[in-house]
Amino acid sequence: MREAKHLLRQIQKQRDLLTAFMDRDEDREDMLQFIHSPTIDGYTELNHRFQQFCFECRFIHYMSKFIYFQTINTIRKLRRNQFQSLPEAFESVVGEDYLMNKFEKSEIECPVLMKGIKNLTDLQQKVIHLHYQKNWKLRRIAEALCVSPQSISKAHRRALNEIRTWMESDQHARGS
Question: Which residue numbers delimit the RNA polymerase sigma-70 region domain (predicted)?
Fold first, then answer.
């Protein structure tokens, strides 16, 4: 049963190829000429041209698939390279020195808040700076630092909690 279905599919494919082959004027004329006066030379010539036509069809099909998948791979590489170059650009813009200088010269006028931010870890400082001063979304920060959005969200939440607890405590009054 499977062999019969496979054979029917092959006949259908060949019929489509034969129809396409017959759509070309010179091939149709040669086929009609062979039908009216069959010869061995006519058969070999027609068979050779049909095989050549089939090869061209397979080659065109192969090349179109090749171009399609190469395009997909190129797009994937471009996307991957964008995210790989993002951390490098991030580090050039938000290096350690830049980050600390930016906090000191920023819109943060409250010295208590500034001291609270300086008590945070480097990651928490970067998250606070990028989120509140550069208006970056947490997801963009995660992509730039090549970490998960959950870890950035957690660092953000912890930073806010640490600043809040530090400001509520007596430590900021003593200047620590």
Answer: 117-164
